[in-house]
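Entry 12.
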Amino acid sequence: SCTGQETCWARGIVAYFRRRRLERAAELLRTTPQRVQDIAARVGYESQGRFAQAFYDQFRLTPLEYRRLSK
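Predicted 3D structure (tokens):
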């Protein structure tokens, strides 16, 4: 829950951009042979672990599972 309109708005913006970054990562996993850590960096994650957790939270698959199933 949000404590104010600006806080809710900011959370919505952050969630939107996170989702867009992860959608781009999913596209790269489907269409390129790039390593997961390279894709993570390309979409703005410095930590592969944080990327993998965010990806799992969004898609309920690890990046490697997603790539394997999308072939």
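Annotation: Residues 27 and 67 are 9 Å apart (CA to CA). The mean pLDDT is 93.
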